[in-house]
Amino acid sequence: MTKKETEEFILNESFEDLLNETIGKDTKFEGSVVKGTIIELDSDFATIDVGLKSEGKVPLKEFNASAKDLTVGDQVDVYIERVESKNGSAVLSREKAVREEAWVELEKLYNNGEHVVGTIFNKIRGGFAVDVMGTVAFLPGSQIDVRPIKDATPLMNNPQPFAIVKMDKQRGNIVVSRRAILEENQEETRAELLSKMEEGQVVKGIVKNITDYGAFIDLGGIDGLLHVTDISWSRINHPSEALQIGQTIDVKITKFNKETNRISLGMKQLEENPWIDVSKRYKVGQVVKGKVTNITDYGAFIELEKGLEGLTHVSEISWTKKNINPAKVVSTSQEVDAMILEVDEEKQRISLGLKQCTPNPWESFHNEHPDGEVIEGPVKNITEFGLFIGLNEEIDGMVHLSDISWDISGEEAVKEYKKGDIVKARILDVNIEKERISLGIKQLTEDTFESSLKGIKKGSAVKGKISKVLEEGVEVEINEELHGFVKVTDLAKAKADQDVTKYNEGDEIEAKVISIDRSSRQVTLSVRALEIAAEKEAIAEYTKNEEFTSSFGDILDNALNSKK
Asked: Counting runs of H as helices and runs of E as strands, what totals does the chain give?
């Protein structure tokens, strides 16, 4: 080996040893936190010199909220992950450096249950990123406030306290909660409020939430329920008619359950109750003026004075229009006259009537048309129970099926009429209370059944001719207009003679009137009853004759003849 070759060998060998020595020394820095100097800044990275063979680059996002304040020449702590990467530069981490420094302190605070100060600096999936002592913690969306919030912008970039709820050093995860801090504060405020709270107390509150049944009022850390019926003495369909979210109001504590901490509130209780002594101010039969405040399917509410309303039921709106939609008669804010029908101070109810302020058409009709008068009008409707005849523009009268004809059934008689026919009828009865007028068509003529009954009554004996022989008995023509019927069992006293085959049409028969049914226009007869009555009369005559000059048979014949 020449001298030159020997010198080159020694030189190369010394450089290799020196290099190995230097690299071995540098590798001892891996996994440690060292101070470095920022020598260059761009939009995404900070280039930092930590005294190694080469510099390293750290993403600006690892500096969190403080990244905007960095300048060239600043010294910062960084964590050395590797002395040299594949591209020959050092691999550094600001985030891990901060974590290493902060982790011990955070674990101490976490174990002691103490709070930390952090800054929300970014919104991420599922929540927010929080800078806590230079390290990034996760704030879940559900833990940002005690209630859901739409916009978290006002909370960002402002230092505020947080509770550490979870730490995982192996994964490097820290979870914090702002809600826990707020709930602690609320609990303290709540306990103080509850200790001072009493029924009857008047307090200020803020409308927090509005529902169909009322509103929740924030009393300064504790909520109370203001039911819709306790907002105003006037009728309110929905709380939003009187309240707005965020509105500050005065309320009275009407009920306070110390066991459940449930609070009931009232607004109307701060005003004088208009229902006190209402029965002294409003009397049944009194006509009052009022304003229509609400219209429903079942009636209309009318305000008589502030906070005092009465209800006009749909049945009390019109004399003649039944089940009418109230909105077709009155409108909201309309001033109307109404009559007081009932006052219930205890139940806080006033019943009103609109129709009572106008003439009763049935009463007016009755005053103009007395019972028995004959009227004329068109057939307005035909139903299964009769005819309705129009009497004027407002009311109708009814002819029942039984009052159409004397001689034929109502079902048959009604077939002779159709809508629009002009008919005459007699007024039978006007019931003002029931709003009903009864009419009769058959009453325009004499009842042939009644005229045919002249001289005939129950218990009397009649003669007639058999007009029809049936299995169940015989039909008897008493006169041209009147027919009777004798059942088989009433044809004779003796059972042997109770046989319809022994009778023929045209045979004369004598019988006793058992019943007269004017509704069915039927007369029931009995030969048997006539014979029994004659027999009893003969026995009585025979027993009182002491000389027995006549035989019993003669007396019985005389009794039967006398019946004839």
From this structure: 9, 30
